[in-house]
Hints:
- By secondary structure, the chain is mainly α.
- The protein is built from 12 helices and 2 strands.
- It has a single domain, classed as Formate dehydrogenase/DMSO reductase domain (Formate dehydrogenase/DMSO reductase fold).
- It has a two-stranded antiparallel ribbon with strand order 1-2.
Amino acid sequence: MDLTILWFWIIAVMFVGYFVLDGFDFGVGMSLPFLGRDDTDRRVLINTIGPVWDLNETWVIVAGASLFAAFPEWYATMFSGFYLPLVLILVALIVRGVSFEYRHQRPESSWKKWFDGMIIVGSAVPALLWGVAFANIVRGVNLDVNHNYTGTFFDLLNPYALLGGVTTLLLFFVHGVVFISLKTEGDIRLRARKLATKAGILMIVVAATFLVWTIFAYGTVASALLAAVAAGALIASFLANLRGAERLAFGLMAGAIGLVVLSLFASLFPEVMPASNDPANSLTIANASSSAYTLGVMSWTALIGMPVILLYQGWTYWVFRKRIGRAHIEVSVH
């Protein structure tokens, strides 16, 4: 297989890993006002992702670094054209991470409420803007002959992209709530399952609308097949949640999110940044990639490093696999 094609799909898989793993982190953060009736409930919710959220977040660093090395033209065009949305995502991720560490540093309820609010916003903003960004990449943006973005920030807020943002927001929210039902016990677990059912109906309608729009406007045969399987996985996850099969529901949600991401990449291929104003200005895997030598070195590095990373992350999840509940939260002066 041509190394440019291989690395296009490796980067797709890396973004699958990021959206699946950090996606439920975002969902847990967004669930605080719905499931956190008091400070103990909110501590339970935060502790479900406490040991893993920072590890999950590193996937976006790996994906971004790989994109920079394998497709520098794509990286330059995307990060310069989408500068403001990506900065907002970065600020939100920083705010969220700081809030996890600082909310317990003082006993006042107002202090905790402030940081809880930042966790919610710091989770919702990336969940929305990642969908907006990827939908714009699939849709295409205005590029000049040097592959520079010539549009404005408000051009990115078109109906298709906003629908993509709402889709990822709802996907991650339900993904996180299903994760909570998998990781907690007692009343929170039951309430999470009910919330996943209610939000799941809206999620299926919105996601189906977005996928159908994508297929008819920008899709290929491969992307349509992936989207169809993703839709089936979403419905199956919803039904599994109704039955109380939490592991199955979570696994199907993870699979559905991964298939949605792969469907978007399949809609792009072989382009990486379509030019909506002039197809001649589009970036493709051929004119955006690094040299064959660079891609070869990266391939050997990935072959050695990725199994180690996956084994370590799998071990981490195994160690912290047990459920938690209110009884596990120690009474503290904070």
